[in-house]
Amino acid sequence: MREYRNKLILGGLFGLAVLVGLLLYTDVRDAGAHLRAFPVVLILPVLMLTLFNYVLRWVKWHTYLHIIGVENISRTDSAALWVSGFVLALSPGKVAEVLKAAVLRGMTGTPIARSAPIVVAERVTDGLAMLVLGAIGFGGMLMQSAQHNEVLAQYVPAYIAVLVLLLGGITVLQIRPLFRWILRQIENWPLVSRVSKPLAELYESSYELFRPGPLMFAVGLGVVSWAGECLGFFLILQGLGLEPSWLLLWQAMFMLAAATIVGAVSGLPGGLGAAEFTIAGMLQLLVLGEQDAGFAGTATLLIRLFTLWFGVVLGLVTAFAFRHRLFPGQAAAWQPALPDPPGAGEVRP
Question: CA–CA separation, 106 vs 1, rounded Å?
Answer without folding.
Answer: 14
